[in-house]
Amino acid sequence: MMQRQKLFIGGKWKEPNSNERLEVINPSDESILAEISIADAQDVNEAVQAAKDAFSSYSAFTVQERKDLLDAIIAAYDKRAEDIAEAISLEMGAPIWLSSSAQTAMGKAHLREARKILDSFEFIRQQKTTAIAYEPIGVVGMITPWNWPINQIACKVAPALAAGCTMVLKPSELSPLNAMIFAEVLEEAGVPAGVFNLVNGDGATTGAELVAHPDVDMVSFTGSTRAGIAVAKAAAPTIKRVAQELGGKSAYIVLDDADLERSIKSCLNGCFLNSGQNCNAPTRLLVPKHLKEQALTLLKGLAERYAVEQAIAADGRQLGPVVSKEQFDRIQGFLDTAVKEGAKILVGGTGRAEGFDKGYFAKPTVVVDVTPEMEIAREEVFGPVLAVLSYENLDEAIAIANDSRYGLSAYVDSGSLETAREVALQLRTGMVHLNGAMPDISAPFGGYKWSGNGREWGVHGFKEYLEVKSLMGYYPREN
């Protein structure tokens, strides 16, 4: 068991003030992987003060100095990429191929994207005689989730650094080890003391202290909608900006002129990726009623090819475990309720996957005969579970897709790109993937409704960390 109690504050690793500890569990075998500390109010205050003290000097860095710093971070990140990938597999269960080629790779991609934005972003823009100036917002409190840990850390830290902000990060207590390696990366790259600070702990203690701190100018939060509501309430008394990326219940609409087999393959891959622990996963498959039986035959054959394996060994169509016993039990509860409400299990089902007597290995599952009012069609399961619904016509498909309190993402497959475009524009979601299109790291990532407010990735994510100042009379009048 690793002992990783120290916090990174003011450019140094220091012992926490609190003696409270948390165990980090390996979800593949339920062993204790590491022990971390729970930062208390004094620890958080020290971290925020360090960030506040560093802000005046770091915000004055030139654009070129910030670009040079990001270049140094990217170089240091490359040296630790294998360590980060291994940590992610061990602490949250992502298959090693996924934690390396996707999770860790996305962290670097966000660093590169932030560096690229600085090549062309105008921090002062002319509007007649007025200058519109973009300035760093200040001290940012960041709270990141366990499911795509380094991705979410990098897509917050990279643009904040590029903007000239200082920050305090609280990673998920379920996957904190990759965050500590990332802090070591920033330390090696020469990030000035106090610009980046790391405090480990839980949401109720450490997270709450960070969100409510009066010297935190902005909170960037990614997590559940339930926790997002609590964050917004805690931040409100200090009138700080809150940017949130929350849950989802994304619909995958297959139109009757689409390639049905290709669409089902695409939907299953998206739903089961990362053991279904993706906020933007397509977890509701909508197929035309006249194609339902054909779709079920394809679903059964294709879904049965997926298997589970120890995270550090999993490859290809093999899924790792879900992150925790709590998450595993939650998934079982959703499946039990689905059957009670009249749905049927086509593939998978309740219980631990065959061949394992330890580990949180949920079965890749397809639930059919689902209707829109069922819990399985409305709530975010956050596991490898696909709910299949059918529709009579296009208007009904759009209505079913929009009948959700969430609005993060959606997917539309059609033999006609023009039709896919028309449907996409009617969906109340922050993102839509047309005909199997992959994510675009330069495009804004975020949702409507209960899926959050604000955007990450690309220039839209970068702007979240900037204040806008109007300077009237900055430019002389033209004669």
CATH architecture of the largest domain: 3-Layer(aba) Sandwich
Radius of gyration (CA) equals 23 Å
Q: What characterizes the major β-sheet?
A: 7 strands, mixed
Number of strands: 25
Shape: globular
Low-confidence runs of at least 5 consecutive residues: none
Average pLDDT across residues? 97
What is the CATH superfamily label of the largest domain? Aldehyde Dehydrogenase, Chain A, domain 1
- Number of separate helices: 14
- CATH fold name of the largest domain: Aldehyde Dehydrogenase, Chain A, domain 1
What would your notes on this structure say?
The protein is of the alpha/beta class and 479 residues long. The chain folds into two domains: 2-246 and 452-471, Aldehyde Dehydrogenase, Chain A, domain 1; 250-441, 3-Layer(aba) Sandwich (Aldehyde Dehydrogenase, Chain A, domain 2). The chain is built from 14 helices and 25 strands. The strands form seven sheets. The chain has a seven-stranded mixed sheet, with helices on both faces. Strands 10-9-8-11-12-24 form a six-stranded mixed sheet, with helices on both faces. A three-stranded mixed sheet has the order 1-5-4, with helices on one face. Helix 7 links the parallel strand 11 (218-222) and strand 12.
